[in-house]
Design a protein that fits this description.
It is a single chain. With 685 residues, the protein is of the alpha/beta class. Helices cover 30% and strands 24% of the residues. A nine-stranded parallel beta sheet has the order 26-25-23-19-15-14-13-28-27. Strands 2-1-12-9-8-5 form a six-stranded mixed beta sheet. The longest helix has 26 residues, at 546-571. The radius of gyration is 25 Å and the shape is globular. The chain binds ligand MIG. Ligand MIG binds next to loops.
Length: 685
């Protein structure tokens, strides 16, 4: 039973590794945690000694310690910083010219292309439920840019603007909203080599438990234990594999973190056991804000110990989120992280072994001060004849309450006895929440035991957990948005990741869910999720659920391979997903291709991303074997280098394998715990 909880037994995982090793790993290696630990430690030191010359650090002022970089590198004077730079009104600005056809990579979780040219991005962790291409910031701050032979990493927790050929087509101009910062320059010949060096600098990426590669179903919300049972039954009856069901905010008692609504989930401990016996993990959500309620121990303790963010006057900042008024734990302080981390025990004691952390940008619906101002304004408007301006002013007083810059300005962290204004360290907030949880889990249970991922992130938190890409929509365009984010977040250290499959906001359709899933088959986090009020999109709710079974079954056949890829990318500071331009830099079509990705050293993936299309155009940068996988059926066709139109049915998953490579497929199962992991056949060319 114990083994079942943590995925495959070690011996079986080792078999998977060894058997797949012929094609997956270059050198033989076993999944022995001790060995890995040792290898990593020495590896880091070795590369520090050998390769230091490649990485230069430039420090200005007194940088805030973010703990993102784990290697000590002597700073050089800014005079030697090779890019044009200046300080201006308390900001630091630097710029460089770009060659006409140069590709600029990086910035992790953002909208738009893998090539970041032609837009202005902002590192400012934002609760952004409307991910249109004209947005500048999503939930993350991933401050790595790759330009030519340089990787540029800015270690700074405040806002950064990246104007990448937006104002001037041939110039990138970066504005850091402060003058206390560290910039690391990594010089290498190829982008992947830059990524590897960078990742060596920031430490090894989080590896989830094996079962976290199983298919997962989420919904805002399954309100009762009975609803969860129905979802599991729905999947089992349709014979669609499943490993996890999520609990969104409504499982809590009045949205209080670490509590369970005992009316909706009577005897939660037993319920966790019951689902676990079915091989299903329950994954509850945890929000950043702690409900202000007398008698609620987490809140009372936090308040008494002074662990919540302050306002400018030095009393607790009062913001409101789901539960109404909350205190925001000051996760930047180690003692607060330790305290908050231990709260997860309320749920791990009940058998829970996975969590998702939400609203940790932090999202603020309104503050006590902001709401008071808006209500005052409404009061003044009463009985008045409001003209257009007057009306919109009043309306904006309310619509502008959420995530208001004035509120962020009013928030303060108490660090080393000094109040630090929140905007200066904003991007560290969600990352520090992940760290709070991750450090606790590692200490309490060891590595790779607890599933953890977060909405907000800043590079550094990649060591403690994964990320999901937040509130996308049920739009066809968001299949590609997800695809483009994958290599970008991999560069920045996030390996365990994925988007809400089927789309979170708005109503999805059967074909969109299927096509989204066919990409999700390859993302480490394969989770179907949708918002309150939208059409139900669990696989078994649609006509002909066999098609969904076919797609999800393919995932289970690939899990040992995918798991191995993530493990290896983590241990060797590599990427699971790469842009084609990384692998074929001299191929002009591959260089610009942003609708396909390289996966591992073996594959290329190319999902269908348009409605009513019976296939898609795909570009092969070399001869490849084209496989269509569906359930346990496999078809194979050798295709020559060049452009092709390939037909792909809704129940098929396309994958392309390079010459001389092979990808193992195992026998599928309804749960990861029941995978024997042995290669049953190979996708081979
Ligand atoms: O404001 O918990 O991104 O996945 O379902 C919405 C409810 C709050 C946002 C998350 C989403 C989750 C939802 N949350």
């Amino acid at each position: 039973m114990a083994e079942r909880n943590h995925g495959l037994p070690l011996s079986r995982r080792r078999i998977i590794w060894e058997e797949t090793n012929g094609s997956v790993g270059e050198k033989p290696f076993l999944l022995r945690p001790k060995l890995i630990q040792f290898r990593l430690d020495t590896g880091a030191r070795e590369s520090a000694g050998k390769r230091n010359a490649m990485i230069r650090r430039f420090a200005m002022g007194t940088p805030f310690t973010t703990d993102t970089v784990i290697r000590e590198i002597e700073p050089e004077s800014m005079e030697r910083f090779p890019f044009e730079h200046r300080t201006e009104d308390g900001t630091f600005v630097f710029s460089f010219r770009m060659e006409k056809d140069e590709i600029v990579y990086g910035l992790g979780e953002t909208v738009r292309g893998i090539n970041k040219r032609g837009w202005t991005y902002r590192s400012w962790c934002s609760d952004e439920p409307n991910q249109t291409e004209t947005k500048q910031a999503l939930y993350a701050a991933h401050n790595l840019l790759i330009h030519g032979k340089h990787g540029i990493f800015i270690d700074f927790p405040g806002e950064i603007r990246w104007d990448i050929g937006d104002t001037r087509v041939d110039e990138t101009s970066v504005t850091v909203s402060g003058t206390d910062l560290d910039i690391y320059l990594i010089q290498e010949d190829a982008p992947l080599a830059i990524v590897r060096e960078f990742r060596g600098l920031i430490g090894q990426s989080y590896i989830p438990p094996f079962w976290a590669f199983g298919f997962q179903q989420c919904r805002w919300s399954y309100f009762t234990a009975e609803e969860v049972r129905q979802v599991i039954r729905g999947y089992d009856d349709a014979k669609i594999p499943l490993d996890c069901v999520y609990l969104d905010i409504d499982y809590m008692e009045r949205y209080k973190n670490f509590t369970v609504d005992r009316k909706a989930f009577p005897d939660f401990e037993r319920f966790v056991r019951e689902t676990k016996e079915k091989g299903i993990h329950l994954i509850p959500i945890i929000d950043a804000g702690v409900k202000k309620e007398e008698g609620y121990s987490v809140y009372e303790e936090g308040r008494e110990r002074g662990y919540f963010l302050k306002n400018a006057e030095g009393t607790d900042f009062e913001g409101a989120v789901w539960p109404g008024a909350v205190g925001f734990p000051d996760f930047l302080r180690p003692e607060v992280r330790e305290w908050f981390g231990k709260q997860y025990r309320h749920l791990t004691d009940m058998g829970v072994d996975g969590f998702w952390n939400d609203m940790n940008e932090p999202a603020v619906f309104y503050s006590a001060k902001g709401l008071k101002n808006a209500l005052d304004e409404a009061e003044e408007s009463r009985g008045k004849n409001l003209d257009l301006n007057g009306f919109f002013h009043l309306k904006n007083a309310f619509t502008g309450l959420a995530n208001n810059p004035a509120d962020y300005g009013d928030m303060h962290h108490l660090i080393g006895g000094k109040l630090i204004s929140h905007p200066k360290v904003h991007n560290l907030y969600g990352a520090s929440m992940t760290r709070a949880a991750g450090e606790f889990f590692e200490k309490e249970f060891g590595k790779e035991k607890i599933l953890l991922f977060s909405r907000s992130s800043m590079t550094g938190s990649h060591r403690y957990g994964g990320i999901w890409f937040g509130d996308n929509n049920s739009w066809w365009a968001h299949i590609l948005q997800c695809l483009k984010m994958l290599p970008s977040v991999n560069m920045c250290g996030y390996l365990y990741c994925g988007a809400d499959l089927g789309g979170f906001g708005e109503n999805s359709t059967r074909d969109l869910v299927l096509r989204f899933l066919a990409l999700g088959v390859f993302t480490p986090l394969m989770r179907n999720h949708s918002a309150l009020g939208t059409r139900s999109q669990e696989c078994f709710r649609f006509e002909n659920p066999e098609d969904f079974r076919d797609v999800v079954t393919v995932r289970y056949r690939l899990i040992p391979y995918l798991y191995g890829l993530l493990r290896r990318a983590s241990e060797e500071n590599g990427m699971m997903f790469r842009p084609l331009s990384f692998d074929y830099p001299d191929d002009p079509i591959a260089r610009e291709c942003e609708t396909q990705l390289m996966l591992g050293d073996e594959c290329m993936i190319a999902p269908v991303y348009e409605q009513n299309a019976s296939g898609r155009t795909v570009y092969l940068p070399e001869d490849m074997a084209f496989f269509k996988l569906s359930g346990e059926r496999v078809t194979k066709e050798i295709l020559p280098k060049g452009l092709h139109y390939v037909n792909i049915a809704l129940n098929e998953v396309p994958v392309f394998v390079k010459r001389g490579k092979r990808v193992p497929l195992c026998r599928p199962a309804m749960r990861t715990a029941d995978l024997d992991g042995k290669p049953e056949e190979y996708l081979e060319f």
